[in-house]
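Please describe the entry underneath.
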Amino acid sequence: MQNILITASSGNIGAQLIRKLLATNAVHLVLVTSSTEKLSSFANSNAVTIVEGPLSDPQWVETQLKVHKIDTVFLYLFGIEELFTVFNFLNALQRSPNVKHVVYPSACGDFIGKPENTVGWMCAHTKIKPPVEIALRHIMSFTHTVIGPTLFFENDNKFKDAILQGRRWVEPLGEKGASRVAVADVADAVFIALLDQGRKWDGTKINIGTLKQYAGAESAKLWSNALDFHIQAVPSNQESLDMLEKEFRKKLEPVWARDLTLLYKGIISTGFGISEEEYQLQVKLLGRKPAKYEDYVVKLVQTAG
């Protein structure tokens, strides 16, 4: 029986991951959260313990690791204080005699071998990933696997209303474009890596996403075909980035609106994708090809009515 601690358990990846793990009947899950109400759907499971508390407090984390005899961790932390929180969390894991394996969702890219592209972006929530990956490589007390997703399919859902109302593709992706990835594929990759416990995938980073990189014009064309009317792609310039930030600010705090806008600025500059070799590695991990972005667009448009 694996005792697995799950962070970000109420997120999109976490929710799918939890259901898959519980279906194995071979795990006990400790779901850490800032609000137990968000996890009420799992409250009645005998295989689940929900604990509410501050992940930013390393002593509290150490207590949970000890009390629940955690041997495996899904370490998915983000937020304004991510830099301090993740490194304190790693230290807490090092101090635990029980933790044997950690799965860390990072961002797509070879941050160790070829860091010249994504690492140069000004986007803070990707900027933190390379030093965490480096730190993991130097920790000997537990094994680790890194999952590197590209640009989520589900981002399109956030812009659906803007696309339909303005009849324009609002994400500036440049000429090089971005690989896209389904949340379900990332959840599957994490699921496999957690159960593997470092036996096969220790020290490995698996980038997850489509081999094809979709530029703005091509994405707009996919939406046009699905909707049966023309969607115009916005140009990849500062004016479009400013417009994108305005859209983000409708739903997000200003700090996150700017951060995510800088993500798109990075994509315009360098592109965002995976190599053929990286693609085949994810196929080996998943045991199948990743989901098709084209299928997601058609399904999303159908649900939009």
